[in-house]
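Thread: Modeling a multi-component assembly for a lab meeting

Hi all, long-time lurker, first post. My supervisor asked me to bring a structural picture of a complex we are working on to next week's group meeting, and I have zero experience with this. I have the sequence lines for every component (1368 residues in total). Could someone generate the structure of the whole assembly? Inputs are pasted exactly as I received them:
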Amino acid sequence: MMKYNKKELLKQKIQHIDIKKFNSVPMIESFNHMAFQSRNLARACKIYDTMLKDKDCTTILCLAGSLVSAGLKKVIAELINYNMIDIVVSSGAIIVDQDFFEGLGFHHYRGFINADDNKLRELMIDRIYDTFIDEEDLRSCDMTVKKIADSMKPEAYSSREFIYEMGKYLDKHGKNSESFVYAAYKKEVPIFCPAFSDSSAGFGLVFHQAKKKDHISIDSVKDFKELTDLKIKSKETGVLMVGGGVPKNFVQDTVVAADILGINTPMHKYAIQLTVADERDGALSGSTFKEASSWGKVDQSFEQMVFGEATITFPLLANYAYHKGSWKHRKTKKLNDTFING
Amino acid sequence: MMKYNKKELLKQKIQHIDIKKFNSVPMIESFNHMAFQSRNLARACKIYDTMLKDKDCTTILCLAGSLVSAGLKKVIAELINYNMIDIVVSSGAIIVDQDFFEGLGFHHYRGFINADDNKLRELMIDRIYDTFIDEEDLRSCDMTVKKIADSMKPEAYSSREFIYEMGKYLDKHGKNSESFVYAAYKKEVPIFCPAFSDSSAGFGLVFHQAKKKDHISIDSVKDFKELTDLKIKSKETGVLMVGGGVPKNFVQDTVVAADILGINTPMHKYAIQLTVADERDGALSGSTFKEASSWGKVDQSFEQMVFGEATITFPLLANYAYHKGSWKHRKTKKLNDTFING
Amino acid sequence: MMKYNKKELLKQKIQHIDIKKFNSVPMIESFNHMAFQSRNLARACKIYDTMLKDKDCTTILCLAGSLVSAGLKKVIAELINYNMIDIVVSSGAIIVDQDFFEGLGFHHYRGFINADDNKLRELMIDRIYDTFIDEEDLRSCDMTVKKIADSMKPEAYSSREFIYEMGKYLDKHGKNSESFVYAAYKKEVPIFCPAFSDSSAGFGLVFHQAKKKDHISIDSVKDFKELTDLKIKSKETGVLMVGGGVPKNFVQDTVVAADILGINTPMHKYAIQLTVADERDGALSGSTFKEASSWGKVDQSFEQMVFGEATITFPLLANYAYHKGSWKHRKTKKLNDTFING
Amino acid sequence: MMKYNKKELLKQKIQHIDIKKFNSVPMIESFNHMAFQSRNLARACKIYDTMLKDKDCTTILCLAGSLVSAGLKKVIAELINYNMIDIVVSSGAIIVDQDFFEGLGFHHYRGFINADDNKLRELMIDRIYDTFIDEEDLRSCDMTVKKIADSMKPEAYSSREFIYEMGKYLDKHGKNSESFVYAAYKKEVPIFCPAFSDSSAGFGLVFHQAKKKDHISIDSVKDFKELTDLKIKSKETGVLMVGGGVPKNFVQDTVVAADILGINTPMHKYAIQLTVADERDGALSGSTFKEASSWGKVDQSFEQMVFGEATITFPLLANYAYHKGSWKHRKTKKLNDTFING
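Re: Modeling a multi-component assembly
Sure thing. I ran the full set together rather than chain by chain. Output:
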């Protein structure tokens, strides 16, 4: 019978994969002559490389799922550092509970699936499938969010603005420089979180609002407005989606939002999605790009969905693009500069 | 070769299933003695019925996926009308693009999967899997949202407050009384949309903000605060989730949010999820309630996930609970009254 | 801590759903005006009803998955008893380990998922997801198969011939008349098992061959030959598939086999599949009927796949067809009579 | 509008990935410190390597799905050539329609998903998801099977015996030496096909039986007997499953079959499955090894299921094991020699 001891359970840290340490190019080139998802992945890799070669293309990375707790933080950070991504749109948990959390010096741990969750709860250990987190660390992260909110002028902010402040905080107080929130801060890459409060940020911000009469608010309309402005300013856009959910829809919708503002912008020229979702339930996460093209959101010429779990497919794709080197001719777009405070 | 003619394509309206017109109880009782998902569904039905019998239990309905466009509007409306649901937490599209949209008198149409999406786009027809929508109707819906926003005092609102205004609008100008946004307005059932701007509402609100200097904003923190307050005020809570996504996480998180505010609230006592998501990608939508119990969010005693697509499983479950009649002893909780304006 | 006591664990028998005791027709008619899988299921129901109305149509039921242990035995038996199915093609486990097994008087039991499988093994309890079986009962079933084999003239038999002998055995020694193997025996409905040895039958037959020098053999070519002959003799054919696997492929292949024998037979005119399989891995179980039509196996006019787990979808479909009553004009085809011994 | 021209459509041959041309070891080692399926895959890789190090272990490869048409032929052939696999159990299509077919000099071709299947049928092109096949080539393959059958003494054969004859045929008449049926023939590695007639072999054999009065038969009991004998003779066994279906069940069942023959054999000590199947429908393909351990078939100490499509996961796993080199200490077991004719 297993003994549940907190120290023992939180021992093996999740380590983030480094796409510089291996080379998937020969394998992906082989995949291109095969079938099913290997060929789909190869095509997705080629489309991403084409995006990076296209000088007119602004690249948008959409993130959903527990990607950073699973060891994909460095992959994302490197895409930002090597100018391979110009804009990030993410779920809240990835940004706050996972990346910012690790930036503060905390860790995720290798756990196991068949844990006794009641015992974990007693020990204040949270589980994500096969990964463990110290709930006390998470509480500390929540309070840091509150502290940042307390220090800001009481106004309505976009999530992008708040996340920029989080980057600034890491710059001063961070304990782990591999955070991609921090990398984005330094590179002036805007990060949007359309459902920002649905995360550890929400805990800190609710506490902030409960304690301060003059408090900040997070205006999701402002987010949508800012992202639409960036879409309008970009000649072409390409979207690389890891998972589906709100980020997928939010980015696709900017084309329509621009149109409503009276500005004719092209559909997203390139679109890739790595997903396990299925189209047969009619939900957004698994909906095809062909369907999105009926809405005028995504062009059908360069689109590819890959059916596979992201901890395997995303490092392969990022690695391929890294080693092909088309990013070497790209410059930092510094899109945060577009906005007054950014 | 099929001719694409807009009038022909938008001919057969989606009709909403009426749970009063059939009786699934004998079938569900049989399912209880079988195996796999039939038994899981039977157990979920029984848990929902138990929730309705529990006088201390506030019931929360979480909605994600294209449920209303698929014909489930009346099911949701009836759950509200018969006091079977006290709080709704939903994705934006269901509320605005689908339910409010139909409340304005517009419709969804039976389409087909293998449509030529380029031709649909030319005709301004949007596709959701096998369903068609007139894009021009959607634009009219967007503009109605803008009109409502224009009429409001320029402040930070929760999505709940804005959706209440939408209900009020339908009360005056609505053309189809079966809307569940309207039903909730009348019954004082609060509806929360944690990612409100990620919907047709976003289009209207971005337009509103672009045109007006003194404009409203949607504060997602306020949503989280209000929902947490309702959680705190409820003796016990039970959650019925259709799909996963942001609503699932948002509701689960209220237990932790209460704790952070210094108030000890019980975990959600009952939890049901109807989903096709899989736990093996580690993402939230498919994560088990056992996992949620490690986080202190959901109690393990009365929880059941059912693997199945919601257009089949949700009417069966709602029908069972309707015919069992335990709701007859429930009263309207009028939780919108809790808040100043509600 | 749960105590593992065999008597306690094997207490609640699986009970088979009775499609005469409820009526899904109003619900299915509503599903027809909805979307996603509810509409797909409604269309599948209508196609099955059309098959039953078509006087030229021989109906073939394909079975894969643990259907009988899950409580679907009576559904299958009633389809046979009411002349709704003319031929059955099945996986071995359904026929031998599950249906014949229950015909001998044994039972399946309601179990649970998170069982300690090591403890179950010590108690000789086998688990199928949430269902328990007494391994000692299964051994008795294996030995009955051996006994039947021992009594047969040492020759090469098709699985159909052997299963006919099993029906005859149940007629004399059976203890539960609800067996569909028995129903098929009485109705002269042939049952084919293309991978017959991959089941409890295999155990009995291996033992038979090990003990007897002059022993019988199961010739899977003979099965294919016989099924192809039935395809050739049928004016039209319609296939109702529950699950995929070998039965799906085997039945589809008969059209090609006929062609190779120099006889031009039409493709299967009607095809329905209830499945959770996905087309994206390129495997047969999830492959679309459109793909099958490229092979000349299935006509595209009346085909429908329904994404859903069979313990829910199959009773609904069978119930619909039962209550529509088109089977009342059908007669027993007694296709076993086609063959000399049958 | 696309023109359907057979020559144009059958132009780009599927090319088989070569695991000697890249090195996945550094990536897999990184995966081991991550989460979800990357970590599961890393663990599966390590288990396979452990199997190869275990001198007492007979390794069994189970194959289901369209693996060879998808470009995985060389992976399988190399596992055989480097003594990494001692026994193969496969679906029929992989052996006959795909590997033997290519051994005769025919090819699979890169196609596309949204093809007009009616037009493909007119051109005698068969589609597997995104892959095309010339139906005329397949017919030629069927006839070769018939020719082999015609040349054999009219008796009951196991599929293993027949497949050995196919290897012999390729040795004399083959036009592509990369066939793994041929590799297995040379290495005396037995190949079993529990549902042999459910494939292109079935077509040839049905034709053979229809034309010859004294014909051969394929006795699936004999297969089960032979495989059980090999299980009994092996000190320990490890199973590497690509996909599920009949091969998965067949191999698992040998432990029970041995027990029924009165011989106590250990459970399979090692078990790996690469699959997209889901346990929630209760079917065999997605059933867990923990469940299999309740049946006494698989030991729980070294088992790992990996959720992912095999064209990506299988080359990664095979590559890892190849580069780790533990196979260098293994010898050909020549298990075909166990049997008289083998």
